[in-house]
Amino acid sequence: MALLERTGEEVTRTRLAAELGVARSRVETVFPEDGDLFDAITAEWFAPKLAVMDEVMASDLPPRRKMYEFFARRFRLLRQNFRDDPATFNLYVEMGERYFEYARSYIDLGDHYLCELIAEAQAEGFLEGLDVDTAMSLINQMVLCYIQPYMVAMLNERLSEEKLALIVAAIFDGLNAKDGGARGTQDIRAA
Amino acid sequence: MALLERTGEEVTRTRLAAELGVARSRVETVFPEDGDLFDAITAEWFAPKLAVMDEVMASDLPPRRKMYEFFARRFRLLRQNFRDDPATFNLYVEMGERYFEYARSYIDLGDHYLCELIAEAQAEGFLEGLDVDTAMSLINQMVLCYIQPYMVAMLNERLSEEKLALIVAAIFDGLNAKDGGARGTQDIRAA
Asked: Which of B80, B70, B178, B188 is nearest to B129 (CA)?
C-alpha cells in the first residue's frame, strides 16, 4: 500500500517483487494469486472501519445515538483518509469499483449490523411498518454521501457531523411506511 | 451527440467536421471555441430536465407533493437515459465531471427552485428552524442517489419512486433544526 500511495498506481505482484528487491516466487508464497494481493489490500482498507463499527455495535447507546455513531465514525475515517491524500483516496475508490467483489463481504457485514440497529429502533416504535430490507435500503440511500467514498471525496466540505445528525433524526422522526401523500394519485396541474 | 453516442468517445470540433464532411471553418462558424460545443451539449442534456422542473414549479401542488415531483420526474428521465444506453450515459457522467463548470448554471437553477420549495414548505410549518441554505444542503444530500447521474447508474434497480416518496415524507415529517439527541454529549460506553 505504501508503494501504491507513492506511485499513485495499482500494485501487482510483479511490481511488488521489483520494489522489494526479492524474487517473484517469494511474493507468490505470500500471495499465490493476484486476487490474494487485492484481498489483503481490501482487508487493510476496511480494518479501521470495521473496528469502529464493532465498537459502536458493542455499546449500550439508545438506537438514535447508536445509528448516528455507526455512520459518523466511518464518515470521519473516510474524510480523514481523503484529506490526508486525495490522489491515493481516489485511486482506492477506482480500485473499489473495479474489484468490487473483494469488498462485498465487508459491505454485507455493514448491512448486517444496520439490520440489528433497525430491529433495535423498531423495538422502540421507530421506522413503523417498514420491513427490514426496505428500511435498510432507505437508510443507506439517505446517508449515502457520508459512507460512499466517491461522494465523501466529491462533497467534502459540504458534509458535516451536524448535518448527518439531522438526517439520522429525520430517519427516526419521519421515516416509516407511509409517504403522507408525497406520491399522490392525481397528476400535476398548472397553477 | 449522435456521433458521441455511436463512437462512445468525446467529440471535438475537428472530429465533428470530419464526420459531417465539411470544412472545419464551417463548424467554427457555429462553435467558435471548443467550449461552445461543450456548452451546446450541456444545454441539450439538461433541456428535458429543466422542462420537467419548470412544469413542477408552475403547478399548484401542496409542498410535499411538489417536492416529490420535483425530484421524481428528473429521476425518471435519468433512469431512462441510463437504461436506454448505459455506455453513453457513463460517458456523459465522466464529461460532466471533467467539464463541471459548464453544468454549474443548471445546477444553480435547480438549487434556486429547491429554495422556493423550501420556503413553501416552511410557510406550512415544515423544516422548522432550518435556514434555507442548510435545508437545501440536507435535502440534496438525502435524495442524492435520485438526482446524481453517477449514483443513478450505480444503484439502478435499488432506486424506486416508492422509496423516493418515503424519503420525501421523512424530510417533511422528521427534518428540522433539532437532532433529538443523535449526536449526544457523552462518549459511547461498552455494553
From this structure: B178
Q: Which residue of A has its CA nearest to B137?
A: A158
Residue type, B101: E
Which own/partner pairs from B151-156 qualify as long-range (CB within 8 Å, at least 24 positions apart)? B151/A144, B151/A148, B151/A151, B152/B75, B152/B78, B152/B79, B152/B82, B153/B82, B153/B86, B153/B89, B153/B90, B153/B93, B155/A141, B156/B79, B156/B82, B156/B83
- ipTM metric: 0.92
Residue boundaries of the structural domains of chain B: 1-32, 35-174
Are A182 and B64 inside 8 Å of each other by CB? yes
Query: Do residue A188 and residue B137 have CB atoms under 8 angstroms apart?
Result: no
pLDDT over threshold 90, residue A97: no
pLDDT band at B52; cut points 50, 70, 90: very high
Classified by CATH at the fold level, domain A35-174 comes out as Tetracycline Repressor; domain 2 (1.10.357)
pLDDT band at A100 (very low <50, low <70, confident <90, very high): confident
Residue A156: CB atoms within 10 Å: 12
What is the maximum alpha-carbon separation in chain A?
75
- Three-state SS for B59? strand
Cell 399522490 identifies what position?
Answer: A184
SS3 B43: helix
Q: Which residues are A190's β-sheet partners?
A: B59
Q: Is the pLDDT of residue B96 over 90?
A: no
Give the distance from residue B105's alpha carbon to the nearest chain A alpha carbon, in angstroms.
18
pLDDT at A33 over 80: yes
